Amino acid sequence: MADVRNGENGLNQEALNNLPNWAKLGWGLGKQPTRGPKGELSVPKIVDAAIAIADKDGLAAVSMNKVASSLGFTTMSLYRYISSKDDLLMLMQDAVSAMDIPPEREGVDWREEMREYVRACVEVFRKHPWFGDISITSVPIMPNTLQIIDWVLRPLRRFPLNDYEKVAILLLISSYARTCGIIMRDLDRAIQAGATPESFSGLNYTTALKELVKPDRYPYLYPVVASGSYTGENVEDNTVGDDFDFGLERILDGVEQFLAGKN
């Protein structure tokens, strides 16, 4: 098959045509509108306005009409730049994924780099609570998201891993970041709505649970509830520390053990 090239940017146009429209827009490959006032609207301006609405009122509040109104334009004006709300959501997701990636530093081991990555991801979920409400529909293909993936792969280059193993480790650690990010986001939302950290953790329900959880029905859960560990009642008995850090360190331990077996 002939290698069809775009004369302007030298890219394989046939291959690019397989990209969804939102990906083309994210990479700056979409056609720019020829009508309307120049410079007054742009894809980044529209995306920023949509993010501001979502940050304030949630993802459900985002509509092409509302974004257009916030910018002082008609809805049809927006459609000249972004053809659908679905495209807009994907552009919003990638826009808030732009992170200040730390430079490579001598003496910083791979585990610390992974910790930095996971914490940075969790902060995206907390800063933009709507982020986790957008469904995952494909492998990441947007520029900012791929930049993050490139960051995670950086420390893994030192190890005798094939590319599939690197991607599998990336997926494992990213899944943990996403899960913790959504949980912490939900905690933030609950507290903002008037809940207390104690009610979220279940501490307020400790006494009731001790009455309800009986050993005949819950033989293995019963001693955990009875000890107070289930709801964090006896913090002095906690040898684990922070749940988030504990889980992350155990994942990194597993990766380290896997790497040791490759040597």
TrEMBL record:
InterPro entries per the UniProt record, alphabetical: Homeodomain-like_sf (IPR009057), HTH-type_TetR-like_transc_reg (IPR050109), HTH_TetR (IPR001647), Repressor_TetR_C (IPR004111), Tet_transcr_reg_TetR-rel_C_sf (IPR036271)
Family matches, as Pfam families: TetR_C_1, TetR_N
GO terms for MF: DNA-binding transcription factor activity; transcription cis-regulatory region binding
GO biological process entries: negative regulation of DNA-templated transcription
Keywords: DNA-binding, Transcription, Transcription regulation
DNA-binding region: 63-82
SUPFAM superfamilies: Homeodomain-like, Tetracyclin repressor-like, C-terminal domain
Ranges where the HTH tetR-type domain occurs: 40-100
Family annotation (PANTHER family): HTH-TYPE TRANSCRIPTIONAL REGULATOR RUTR (PTHR30055), TRANSCRIPTIONAL REGULATORY PROTEIN (PTHR30055:SF151)
Protein name: TetR/AcrR family transcriptional regulator
